[in-house]
Amino acid sequence: MGRPALQEEDKRIIQVNIRLTKEENNMVCHYAQASAMTPANWIRQKAFTGRFPAIKLSPLNAELYRELHKIGVNLNQAVKQLNTGKLSPAFVTILSALIKTQKDLLNCLMK
């Protein structure tokens, strides 16, 4: 059984061509892939709703993101303890390195 036929008013018969730079095309393709859409559908939804389509993370990435968020909360609490003098200043470099690592992981996850 094939795909059901579209009603005449639902058929997309008008084509609009746009030119993008390589960087713009890479961004559109990246956002479309993250949203589990084709670039054309991503552009269409952005154009007609004015909002970016929701980014869909795989369950593994979503779980990883939540875990990284929890780690970040703990890091922020440790930094607060350090700033109030309740934690030894020797931990400054360790906490700074951990915060940088967390940010790098989040950046990799969002690519």
UniProtKB/TrEMBL annotation:
It comes from the Bacteria. This is Mobilization protein MobC. It comes from Mucilaginibacter defluvii.
